[in-house]
Design brief:
Order of helices and strands: HHHHHHH
Radius of gyration: 26 Å
Structural class: mainly alpha
Helix content: over 70%
Strand content: under 5%
Distance between the termini: 46 Å
Amino acid sequence: MHDHDTSHEKRSIDHEEEFTPAEIGALAHLYRGEVYRSTIWRTRLDTTTNWAVVTLGVALSISYASPDASPLPLILVGVLILFFMMQEARRYRYFNVWRARSRWMETHFYAPMLQDGDLHTEENWQKVLADDYLRPQYHISFTTAMARRVRRNYLWILMIQTAAYIGKLLVHPTQVESLAQFAERARIGPIPGEIVMAIGMIYIATWMSMAFWISGADAKKAKARGSGGASMG
């Protein structure tokens, strides 16, 4: 009687770990759907980045059109870049959902199946995926999403914006001769140039800090996964 129960339990476990051909076909279609959705949202990320590049290019053209042109467009374009960055971070959170699901199936279903040469897959991975479908949620925070977009794209855009603004103040309308003259050129109406420069330094330092922070955080997450930690996102 005991042997019968043991064999019955073993068959139940094997049934949970193996899929029928119909189930494998359904999983294949599910995987293709998730890859397609992640590809669509990845394209939308490129769109907002292109908008940021184009608006910065327009601001550069206006500010460098003549020696007497105002450098103010190079500051105002920062507002648009920030808006695009926030929009892209929001889109990246959606993209990360579809990417995480497809990657989860790759590492827990397809990779073990190819490696072992049979249909044996890792235990309970289906439950994690099922829970994510039943109770969908973002896998990363908005701050993490924005920091990743800054590190991969926007930090370079912001550095070009900053360099162009400083260059404009240094050479137009004539070459700057003193720090006081540089500060005077940075003045915006009643706002002293010193304050404008201080805000600019905080502005660029904030984004650089986010880029360095997310690099370390992602490295720790990757190390945790390599040592056996398993999580989607």
